[in-house]
Each structure stands twice: as structure tokens, then as C-alpha cells.
TrEMBL record, chains A, B:
<dbReference type="InterPro" id="IPR036621">
    <property type="entry name" value="Anticodon-bd_dom_sf"/>
</dbReference>
<dbReference type="InterPro" id="IPR004154">
    <property type="entry name" value="Anticodon-bd"/>
</dbReference>
<keyword id="KW-0436">Ligase</keyword>
<feature type="binding site">
    <location>
        <position position="165"/>
    </location>
    <ligand>
        <name>L-histidine</name>
    </ligand>
</feature>
<keyword id="KW-0648">Protein biosynthesis</keyword>
<dbReference type="Pfam" id="PF03129">
    <property type="entry name" value="HGTP_anticodon"/>
</dbReference>
<feature type="binding site">
    <location>
        <position position="333"/>
    </location>
    <ligand>
        <name>L-histidine</name>
    </ligand>
</feature>
<dbReference type="InterPro" id="IPR015807">
    <property type="entry name" value="His-tRNA-ligase"/>
</dbReference>
<dbReference type="InterPro" id="IPR004516">
    <property type="entry name" value="HisRS/HisZ"/>
</dbReference>
<dbReference type="InterPro" id="IPR041715">
    <property type="entry name" value="HisRS-like_core"/>
</dbReference>
<feature type="binding site">
    <location>
        <begin position="337"/>
        <end position="338"/>
    </location>
    <ligand>
        <name>L-histidine</name>
    </ligand>
</feature>
<feature type="binding site">
    <location>
        <begin position="135"/>
        <end position="137"/>
    </location>
    <ligand>
        <name>L-histidine</name>
    </ligand>
</feature>
<keyword id="KW-0547">Nucleotide-binding</keyword>
<dbReference type="GO" id="GO:0005737">
    <property type="term" value="C:cytoplasm"/>
</dbReference>
<dbReference type="InterPro" id="IPR006195">
    <property type="entry name" value="aa-tRNA-synth_II"/>
</dbReference>
<protein>
    <recommendedName>
        <fullName>Histidine--tRNA ligase</fullName>
        <ecNumber>6.1.1.21</ecNumber>
    </recommendedName>
</protein>
<feature type="binding site">
    <location>
        <position position="183"/>
    </location>
    <ligand>
        <name>L-histidine</name>
    </ligand>
</feature>
């Protein structure tokens, strides 16, 4: 076995003990809220059949799917087919040689290019039939269809698992990262939408965020606007342009709309909608006027109103709504996919993209042959939330402590004395360690420091004689003498 | 997007809500014990550079590594190299054709075989440089080496993550499964070995197992035995044969030993060791006599004695030792790897292979250039433990409940009345759902049944008028009228 210098695969990360405790704090907080709202956890395999995934994420997405090599050797007939069909491989008459020929007269470099393409497409395809999941949504759709006879609708599930994307790694973008998705399928009720707002509100508040916005829009409002302008076919172009208002301002949006097939007249009608301001109530009132002639548009507005009503009833007796809940008709995220309400969550305390989002989709499982199953769901961007909490210093101190107490180890006698005490601590549920060998005090203290262990129990001759042990508070440096039970009271 | 029939990749599984709750019960129980003993969680990426993994698991293991296709297109020069070097691809003089030639005169089928081999080895190799992790041990070794300057020794870590193996799937054997590993590196103390026995004992007891054995052996005892017989080089052959005592009996073992180079004289000396019986103390006494002339052998016995002493001191004040702790010199698991104590855990209540095992290794990180770092660790076979608990019906009823209470939904008025109550439940930490639309009672009850929800709150006109809600216990069928606070007291 030759020695190699160890390295991480590009775009992947190790998580240290301190990072894991913080990550678990995020996952646990979010999961606890999901469960309180009646959502149950499922998991799907990391690898899916390639045909389950391809064609679901657009051409760009498909390129980012990590494919897994078939494990067995290539089948003989596969090789033959590849060589014969793709390379035009054949024996040269009256010769011991074999030839690859191309139809047109081309340069040697062009031949290599063509062959490179063939190797890429034909050979690669025949070598792989499995891939790593790209998101949690498509596997969830597959799950629902495959388990449809054992599922009772509405089916409320959450899923917290890693996904993989062959993206170019950069700051904050990894090839392996966690998604936290929560969805319900089989219920049209807008109570679900309202509860997702409450879930965001409660989970992010529990994580310590104080100033964040939950933006809501509705695909039907966008359709209504395109309809009113008389350009229903340009809805995608319209929303792609409007979505950029924050970045390029009204002039930029107007320019882009003109480029995308809208007229100055259209812009005249669009402008008041794009610049819609005021409270949610004011926006709703304006939209009702603007969309008065669009049945679809009014339906969208009514859905938003109903969601706001539900939220109002739900918050009155419980957690206050810390989040700013904001109707934002420039919000267009994943429009091809969503059919009703659309959500996006942003923190206002740190410059960071969205930390969550989602919406309602009316045909999630159609791709697998199960029609007309409506669903709505949102997801939490755990990695971004991690960065936000880190930047705002919001991880609780308790999220950094593993072992609560270290018992020192000076010699065989003290070790022997310490063993039952060690187990007493553990029996009481206190995470405890005995330094595993007698070593210099300095070394043992450095160990406690490095592990962020808040207390050290020192056991020497005096302590054994008196039964009063020395408890050192590693933060304050303070030392006091206490019996074992006193120490346990203090640590619990 | 064409509709495809959804399927799972071979050898992989979905986990339903009920299965996830049970799996989490196992993971959480084990993790809680790990933490109490001072172990901290880390995670490593699912994908590692291929060169980190290959050569670590033997030829058979290497074949079972799932390789990931490089994501970018093949590089032009890679294709050129493959075609030129491996296929001897070249232009035919004075022709527009290109040729592949082989050195020897062989049949066309042989050419295809050779090319198939080339495609398998050369092309496949050039197409992949990443792979899915095969176990948690090699990634842990990589982690320790890469993080050596930030780690304080002894480093106590646990890791619960899936691994992937391209094995032929069969009952109980999957291509994706979880490993639960706990290891400490940088401490020679046998206290660590003793604590692993306590960890097994406590975790498996908490999981509900009542009759299980923790078997222990020591590589040095096996070396000592081989040394005494005068065949130190045959230690592997000896242990492979002895390891089969359970399956093939003494006659079978004797036959195999003769085949593997031992003489009748050797067998004479080996027999009393193989058939070693009695209590651990009696076995230790016999071994001390047998191994009197082997320094290594006596060292192994002394290590076992020290571990037993530690266990004795640790259990006296805490959890009793439920496990049968048994010195078993036929235990040889992973001998090439382990250098000191070796562990294996079996349940005696169900026929099932080992549900855990591990041992001490003196050179885990040598493969990555960090020498002389000793480590010891064990792992829990979570999938097998799941099957054992299922067969013995040991999953607690609480491990099946997600939502605690469902509020019925008969009409808009009742729904409106229910919303603040719903949030009161949740604020009190009670997982609660309101059926999201008004539907027939039967349908709502069927939903509660399917989700194993133990209580349903019925709200009709009478309930709204009186403020006393009807609480139905879904198991007993019993109904009673209670105010909201009364229901909350009962549910908490």
C-alpha cells in the first residue's frame, strides 16, 4: 500500500465536532418544528436510477447530475456495439489490422474531436445507469408514486438529507450539501400554505433570527397581470424581467421588457403593478382593481387573502409573528414549476441570498404517471442558515459543549478511585470522561480546553482522603471542593 | 418529459415514516451513549478521491467500490492518449481511414475481448477519480491526518453515516447501509477498551436487548499460541481455521489445520487451547500456563486481565453488566488489521450474525503517512439491530407516534374555532394537526388511524357552545368532554 497525501474531493467538506454540534442544532430545531406541525420524516436512497432523474432539471441541471459507474465489467456486446456502431470499427480486408473510418474527409484533430464526443456520449452512457440524487423533490415524487397504495392523503413528510451537484465549487457552494424539505401532497387547503409561514416563523425564531422576511406571491396573480396586458404567452419573460427589479431597477426592468417583446403601452400598464407599495392590505386592494377583469388574477389575490386570514387566526394565541410577512409580486422563483403560492425567505440582518423558499405545484407526480396530485412545500437552506448564525454569533453556548466534565488522572490510585465516580456521572446523564492515562496536569488541562469541556474534577491524595473533590470551572478558573453528589447537582 | 415507471436502484431502500422513527430510535440511543462517554460526532463527505480509497480493502473490496463518473466532458488529450496508447490508433498511410492494430495475430473475438478489457480499465479509469465511501474507517484515517494540527489527542469521535458497496443485493444485504462507528486514536490506555464494553452494554440494554454476549480476544494471544507451536508464520492460517470451530467442529478444524501446514504434533498442542472452557478466570489461568514461554502471548493475557479489571471497577456503581462478557480465543475477526484486543457482539435471543465488533489497530493512519498513531474502536450494525428489535418486538410504542392529536374539521366555523387551539397545542410542544379541509368524519378518522395518531379532538356545534371539546382515545375508542387545558394536561 503506497502512502498518498490525503485530500478531500473537490467541493466537499469534513465536519468537525464543533461544526457537527452546530449543524445538529439547526437540523434538530427545524425537525422539532416540522414534527409539531404533523410532518413525518422519510428518507430516500442516495442513488437513484438515472432514468428517474434525467429530464427533470432542464439541460443545465442534467449536466450537474453525478453519475455512478456500473460496478460490473462492461458487457462484451456493449463494447462491440460501441466500437462497431460509434467508431465504425472493422477488420481491414486481407490484413491483420482493424480500422476506424469516418465518412467525411476531415483532419486528424477533427477525428479526435468526434471520437471524444463519442466516448463522452456513447461510452459514458453505456457505463452508467445510476446517479446521486440532485434534490429531494424528484425522489419524493418517486416515493409518493411507488408508495401510493400505503399512503393516506394528505401525506405530510419532511426530509433532511444531502444532495450532490457537479457544480463548479466556490465560496458557499458545495458539491455535497444538505436540503431540508417539508411538503404535503393531496391537500388543496390553503391552511397548509399558512402553516408553512408559521413553520418558517417558529423555526427561524428558535434559531435566534430576529429580523427576517417571508415573501409571498402567487403564480395566478402573475398570470392575471400578463393576461390584463394581453400578453399571456409572455408570462415567463415578464416575470424573469420583473424578478430583477432589486438588482437593475425600474429602468433596467423596462429595458429588458421591451427587449422581450413588450411595448411601451404594456409598460404603462405594468409599471404601477411593478411598483406596488404599501401594506399588504393596500397591495391587495390595488391588485383587485388592476386585476378586476382577470378571473385567474383575482383567484390568486383571493388565495393570498385566505392565507393571510389563516395566519392571522393561527398567530393570535401562540408565538407572535416575528417575521415580516410581505406580498411581493416581483417574486417569481421556479415559476415553471409552481402553480399557486410562491414563498421566499430572507434575513435582513446579513447580506445573504434566500435562506428558504417553496410553493404549490399541481403536478409533482405526473412525471411518474400519477396525475392530479397537488402539493405544496418549502425548504430551508441549512448551509446558508449556518453561515448567518455564525456571522451573527447566534449559536448557543450549549451548542458547543460535548463532554461536560473531565476527571483528571494522576496515578493508578487516583484512577482507581475515579472509575466509579465516572460512571456515577454517566448514570446521571452527564457526559463525562476520565483522562485515559496519568499525564502532566498541563496536558490534561489543554485537552479539556481543546474539547471545550467546562469542568475538570481534580483527584489527588487530599481529595481521596477527604472525599471532597476539587471542581475547576474552566471558564472562570475558579476552584471549589465538593463531594461527588454536590458536583452532580452543580453539573445537572 | 416522458412518463417512466418509477423504481428503486437495485439494493437500495426508501424509509417510511414508521421505519424512520424506529431507525432514529436506534441512532439516538446509540449516539446518546457515545456522547456520555465523551465521544464527539464528525461527518466526512459521501464522496472521496478514488486514490484515498483504492488499495485499502483488498482486491475483492476494491471491486465493490462505487465509482463516480467525472462530471466534465472528457479532455481531448485524454481521448487521444486512450486511442493512441491503448488502441494503437493511427492514420493509414495514403488513406482517409484510421486504424487500430494489435501486435499478435488473433481472432476478431479476441480483439473485442482485448478492447473490452481496455475500455474497462483504461477508459473507466480515465473517466473517474471520485468514489462513494466504502466504510467509515478509511475516511476517518484521512480526517485524522488532514486535521492532525487542530486535533488534540486522544481524539474520541463517533460517526453515523451511510456507506455504499456494489455487492450483490440479498436479504439483509444492501448497497447503501448505515455504519455507526466509535473510535479513539492517540491513547494506549486499556480503559478505552473497557469503556467500549460498557458502551455496548449500555446501548444494547437501552435498546431493550436482554441476552447478548460481548466476546473479546487479543491478537497477541493468537500470536503467542502460534509462537508456542513453533509456527509464528502460520498465525493467519491458524486463526482462519480456529475461527470456524462453531461451524465445522473440532474435527473440521483439525482437518483444515493439517491442510494448512500444521502437523499432528502441532494439533496436540493446539487442541487444549481451542477447547479452552470455563469461566474467564479459568481460561486466563490456563492461557498463562500454555503461554508461559511466550512474552507476546502473556502480554495479550495481561491486556485482557486489565480490561476485565477496568470493567469490574466501572460497573460496580452504575448500570449492571447485562452482557455476557466472554474471553473467546477463537475470535479472529479482521486479524490482519487488529493488533491488540478484538471484540464481537452477538444477541442470544435471535439467530443473527454479529451485531457489532471492533478492536485495536496500531497503524490506522500509516496509509496516509502519519505513523505510530494507535487507535481502538467498535461499530454497531444498525441494520441488523433493527431486524433484531423488530423480531423481538422491542421498539417502544412511543417510537411509532408522530402527531399526538388530530383536530377534526367539519365546517368553516369549527375550523375557525380550532385554529387558535391548534397553536395552543403546538406552543405546549404537542405535535398537532388540524385536518386541512372539512371532510367526512370517517375519512378523518381513517387518516388518524393510518398515521397512528393516538387522540382526535372533535369540534362540533355543541363543543363550540360549551367550550368542552370531545377527546377521543383512538386505541380504546373512549370519548370524554374536556376543556382545552384539560386536554393539554392529558396529552403532555
Amino acid at each position: 500500500m503506497s502512502v498518498i497525501k490525503p485530500s478531500l474531493a473537490k467541493g466537499t467538506r469534513d465536519f468537525t465536532p464543533v461544526e457537527m454540534v452546530k449543524r445538529n442544532f439547526i437540523y434538530d430545531t427545524i425537525k422539532t418544528v416540522f414534527k409539531k406541525y404533523g410532518y413525518a420524516e422519510i428518507q430516500t436512497p442516495s442513488m437513484e436510477n438515472l432514468k428517474t432523474l434525467t429530464g427533470k432539471y432542464g439541460d443545465e441541471g442534467d449536466k450537474l447530475i453525478f453519475k455512478i459507474l456500473n460496478s460490473g465489467p462492461l458487457k462484451h456486446q456493449d463494447t462491440r456495439r460501441i466500437l462497431q456502431e460509434d467508431y465504425n470499427f472493422r477488420k481491414i480486408d486481407n490484413s491483420e489490422d482493424y480500422t476506424i473510418s469516418t465518412d467525411d474527409k476531415i483532419t486528424e484533430d477533427e477525428v479526435f474531436d468526434i471520437l471524444a464526443k463519442h466516448v463522452n456520449e456513447s461510452i459514458k452512457d453505456s457505463l452508467t445507469e445510476k446517479a446521486l440524487r440532485y434534490d429531494l423533490t424528484v425522489p419524493f415524487a418517486r416515493y409518493v408514486v411507488m408508495h401510493q397504495h400505503e399512503i393516506t392523503l394528505p401525506f405530510k413528510r419532511f426530509q433532511v438529507q444531502p444532495v450532490w451537484r457537479a457544480d463548479r465549487p466556490q465560496k458557499g457552494r458545495y458539491r455535497e450539501f444538505y436540503q431540508c424539505d417539508v411538503d404535503v401532497v393531496g391537500s388543496e387547503s390553503l391552511l397548509n400554505e399558512a402553516e408553512f409561514i408559521l413553520i418558517y416563523n417558529e423555526a427561524l425564531t428558535k434559531l435566534g433570527l430576529k429580523d427576517f422576511s417571508i415573501k409571498i406571491n402567487n403564480r395566478k396573480i402573475l398570470s392575471g397581470i400578463a393576461e390584463i396586458i394581453g400578453k399571456p404567452d409572455l408570462i415567463i419573460d415578464m416575470t424573469v424581467a420583473i424578478d430583477k427589479l432589486d438588482k437593475i431597477g425600474l429602468d433596467g426592468v423596462s429595458k429588458e421588457l421591451l427587449e422581450r417583446g413588450f411595448t411601451e403601452d404594456d409598460l404603462e400598464k405594468l409599471r404601477p403593478v411593478i411598483l406596488l407599495e404599501g401594506t399588504n392590505e393596500e397591495k391587495i386592494a390595488s391588485l383587485k382593481q388592476v386585476l378586476a377583469n382577470s378571473e385567474t388574477g383575482l383567484k390568486g389575490v383571493a388565495e393570498i387573502e385566505q392565507v393571510f386570514d389563516y395566519v392571522e387566526s393561527l398567530i393570535s394565541y401562540s408565538l407572535p409573528l416575528t417575521a415580516k410577512l410581505e406580498l411581493d409580486i416581483t417574486l417569481a422563483r421556479g415559476l415553471n414549476y409552481y402553480t399557486g403560492c410562491i414563498f421566499e425567505v430572507k434575513t435582513n440582518e446579513v447580506a445573504m441570498g434566500s435562506i428558504g423558499g417553496g410553493g404549490r405545484y399541481d403536478d409533482l407526480t405526473g412525471m411518474f404517471g400519477l396525475k392530479d396530485l397537488t402539493g405544496v412545500g418549502v425548504s430551508f437552506g441549512a448551509d446558508r442558515i449556518y453561515d448567518v448564525l455564525e456571522e451573527l454569533n447566534l449559536f448557543p453556548a450549549s451548542a458547543e459543549v460535548g463532554t461536560k466534565v473531565l476527571i483528571s488522572n494522576f496515578d493508578t490510585e487516583a484512577e482507581k478511585y475515579a472509575l466509579p465516580i465516572l460512571q456515577q456521572f454517566r448514570s446521571a446523564g452527564i457526559a463525562a470522561e476520565l483522562y485515559p492515562s496519568s499525564a502532566k496536569l498541563k496536558k490534561q488541562m489543554a485537552y479539556a480546553d481543546a474539547k471545550n469541556i467546562p469542568y475538570v474534577v481534580l483527584i489527588g491524595g487530599d481529595e481521596i482522603a477527604s472525599g471532597e473533590l476539587t471542581l475547576k470551572d474552566m471558564k472562570s478558573g475558579e476552584q471549589k471542593k465538593l463531594a461527588v453528589l454536590g458536583i452532580m447537582d452543580l453539573l445537572k
